[in-house]
Amino acid sequence: MAELFAGVGGFRLGLERASGKNGAFEVVFSNQWEPGKRRQHASDIYVARFGAEHHLNADIATVPASRIPAHDLLVGGFPCQDYSVASTLRNSKGLVGKKGVLWWQIHRIIQESATPPPYLFLENVDRLLSSPVKQRGRDLAVMLRSLDQLGYAVEWRVVNAADYGMPQRRRRVFLLGYHRSTNAFRTIVNGDPRQWLTESGTMARALPCRSLGAATVFSIAKELSTLSSTFGVGGGPSPFLNTGLMVNGRVTTLRTEADHHGPSTTLGDVLLPAKQVPEDFFIKRAELKQWRYLKGAKKESRTDRTSGHQYAYSEGAMAFPDPLDRPARTIITGEGGRGASRFKHVVATEDGRFRRLTPMELERLNMFPDDHTAGVSDTWRAFFMGNALVVGVVERIGRELLHTATSVR
Predict the structure, then answer these.
(1) Active site residues per annotation
(2) How far apart are the C-alpha atoms of 359 and 363, rounded to whole Å?
(3) Residue whose C-alpha is closest to residue 384's, from 346, 339, 333
(4) Are 256 and 210 in contact (CB under 8 A)?
(5) What whole-number percentage of the chain has pLDDT above 70?
(6) What are the phi and psi torsion angles at 265 (to 5°)?
(7) Res. 86: pLDDT tops 70
(8) Mind spelling out the 3-state secondary structure of 119-181?
(9) What is the mean pLDDT of the chain?
(10) Given this model, what pLDDT does residue 85 score?
(11) What is the pLDDT of residue 30?
């Protein structure tokens, strides 16, 4: 397995758990690099937890494909800042964004490899399906077509981890690629796409779902330059629904919902006892008014700092404190720090006090081991969890990907 954009190792954790005692997923290369940062904190955490062997802390654009050992699986949560819900979709830059272009490093490594990896396992924010705003769906169409030209069939699913009993409401799109040399590719080509997506395929077994309505089928079998300039022109919603499969340039996509009947974990289930929480995480009584204002509903006049233009601003209320009997809201990168915020989690303790979540609790919401990110400041630890994926989702998909790789005929 080769792991790109490794962060603090969420993909690796999930796949190692999926391996069990067999160790089927063995990392032969990992890379983590944060441009413009003197201290490479994420890479340091990765090395501290997994060791320095096979790990490279360097700009992936400078790494020749020949430097990466042969591998059966390429994984990566490629940078998603250009699509992130932390900024408005109108400001997204998609594939032409500063970090969005790193997608083409994945493409380059596959293209230049002496033996392309049989399987791909990628992750991004769900906005990828509708980016950019003026050509909704173009970015995913270009990615799928570029992988098609490299010989892959690709399935995707937008997954909310909480829908499958996990402790955080975190939506991400996961993509699996099957090279034409694999039995899985041949099974997909000769089978019913809808059946693969809802019954027999890797995602369907890992994360059972129900279809909602008919499938949409269309072709993206065009030159990349043509697809890039014409896809989605004219407006309208993205044709890519939350579940889909592309093979030989033909897309089958449908809307599905989770079919989960097992236990569920809530925010309350991951909390530390109050006596184990450092005092710094408790909100002072004098600061509660600001927290309540930021969390509350608003309808007020504001002035643009640049233009001086006045405008009406409104937003709905957020729960304060966060309910303990439900999965947590999505962690964002700005979760750390003592300052009042609309988006940080706040919980009430039995003695009537209010507090923020600790780094260990944030780790638990992403299903990381306790203190996985220890060794850097609490603010950095929160930042890492705002960027991370929910490990349990990767574990479930990884387990079924092993089954697909070894048993599909």
Answers:
(1) 80
(2) 6
(3) 333
(4) yes
(5) 94
(6) -105, 140
(7) no
(8) EEEEEEEHHHHHCCCCCCCHHHHHHHHHHHHCCEEEEEEEEEHHHHCCCECCEEEEEEEEECC
(9) 93
(10) 37
(11) 98
Phi, psi of 120 (to 5 degrees): -125, 145
Please tell me the distance from the alpha carbon of residue 224 to that of residue 230, in angstroms, as a whole number.
10
pLDDT digit string, tens, across residues 303-351 = 988 888 998 999 999 999 999 999 999 999 999 999 999 999 999 998 8
The angle at the Cα of 97, spanning 306 to 252, to the nearest 5 degrees, equals 125
- Give phi and psi for 70, each to the nearest 5: -55, 140
Q: How far is CA 101 from CA 67, 142, 143, 222, 315, in A?
A: 21, 12, 11, 20, 34
Give the position of tokens 């603010």.
Answer: 379
Look at residue 56 and give its three-state secondary structure: strand
Residue from 400, 326, 334 nearest 365 by CA? 326
pLDDT at 270: 98
SS3 call for 47: helix
253: its two tokens: 């996509």
pLDDT digits (tens, 9 = 90+) for 91-119: 666 655 555 578 888 999 999 999 999 99
Q: Which domains does the chain have, with CATH numbers?
A: 2-261+394-407 (3.40.50.150), 267-374 (no CATH)
Residue of 372 and 312 predicted with greater confidence = 372
Structure tokens at 244: 């889909």
The CA–CA distances, whole Å, from 2 to 64, 94, 120, 340 equal: 14, 25, 10, 40
Whether the pTM exceeds 0.85: the reply is yes
